[in-house]
Amino acid sequence: MSSRWRETSPAELAGWLGRAAMPWGIAGGWALDLWQGSVSRPHSDIEISCFLADLPALLPILDSFEIVVARNKQLTPLAPGTALPSPPFSLWLRRRGETLWDFEIVAEAQVDGQWAYRREPTVRRPLRSVFTRTTSGWPIIAPEIQLLYKCKQPRDKDLLDLERYVPQLDEAARLWLRSAVAAAHPEFLPTLLALEARC
Question: Which Pfam families match (predicted)?
Answer without folding.
Answer: Aminoglyc_resit
